[in-house]
Specification:
Layout: H1 5-21, E1 46-48, E2 51-58, E3 63-70, E4 74-77, E5 80-90, E6 98-107, E7 114-123, E8 137-144
Antiparallel strand pairs: 1-5, 2-3, 2-8, 4-5, 5-6, 6-7
Length: about 140
Amino acid sequence: MMLSSLGKSLLLAVAVIALAAAPASAQRKPPEPKKEEPAAVEPKVEIEGKGAMLQGLDKVTARISPLEAEIGKTVPFGSLLITVRRCQRSRPDQKLERAAFLEIDSVDPATKEKKRVFSGWMFSSNPALSALDHPVYDVWVKDCR
């Protein structure tokens, strides 16, 4: 079936009208050049504490003991020596989180030899994420002060 020249002209006119009536969002536009914006300064996410409040569990006696440690000071718990290097808490407008960087040494009672059994961050919201692996003792972070 062949279209006459009048039919072709009519078809072309309908196509032009349809394109002109299309919404502006459907028509292609060249991409706009990106503007260089200065990087936003991230607000500090944590507040440094002066010490940590910890809890220790003696698995043999099932006794839980509260422990308070100043930054840089070593506190004993059973045969463990716990040193808090940093303690941070989230800002009040953030999700509640407390984290402390701990170094824990185990002292052999017979030889008085120290062995590092843990060094890392512990989190109050998820103690199992980074936990002390010791056969007799457990230690976890409660809060920063």
